Amino acid sequence: MMIREHLIHSTAGIKLARMLAEIGDRIFTVERAKELASSAGISPGYLHQALHHTARSGWIVRLRRGIYALSGAVPRSLPLHEFEIGMALVHPSAISHWSALSYHGLTEQTPRHVFVLTPARSVPRLRGEKKRSDPGYPVGNTIYRFVQVKPERFFGIDEVWVNEARIKITDPERTLIDGITAPQYCGDFSEVLHAFEVRGPKLDLDRIIGYALKIDAATAKRLGWILENRGVKSSRLKELQAVPIKGYSVLDPTGPRRGPCNRRWMIQVNLPGTVNG
What we know:
There is one protein chain. This protein has helices spanning 2-22, 30-37, 47-56, 82-89, 97-103, 172-181, 189-199, 205-215, 217-229, 238-241, and strands at 27-29, 60-64, 67-70, 94-95, 114-118, 137-139, 142-148, 157-162, 165-170, 249-250, 261-262, 267-268. It is α+β, with helices and mostly antiparallel strands.
């Protein structure tokens, strides 16, 4: 009896998956599945069982509670890009940090995770995991890392096409700012400095300075130090230098509080080779 029910639910679920593929809903909610359930021969009371059995059969993938995606097993359904899945896991959101560095060609390294910037107060987590020890959220073989920010810091975002999906992603300048504030999500601080070098003459100075001024004083000072050391004229950096700050900030926020102090930028340069002891 159980085997027969499994086959019935799987067959109906596969029909539902084919219907979703035909209308282009590669990622769908339970609510969307309810709208199509009767046409697939699924009664409302058995929808969850049908989705469960269809997922076990490999036709759909559960992304998080209430959200599913079609797998590559569904005919006429292109495989989902990992960025597309990241966008579906939390809303609003944008691909960011190391993933954005890679997309913009600002790093030669391959990110191990997909990084997602979001102002959402709640993000997907493994059951029982605490925020402080967040190992990321797995979907298939990909790990997603969510970087939560205040709503007023959710800016500097472009929309791009990746395969068949329209994706939101931090623009190059915002990505570099994120590297200054949280280099641990971009490889490390040396990788961020390399990204500035790669961006080179394409860097939009007005945009990145404006972004830094919207974040905080420490970010403004770090950016000022980086740009000055990259040969940007002092006249272009007056806004950054004028930002008031209490005390010195370390250049690399993940590094030790040791190294020579730059009074002009109120920065303690804690890069390798400058730190004593």
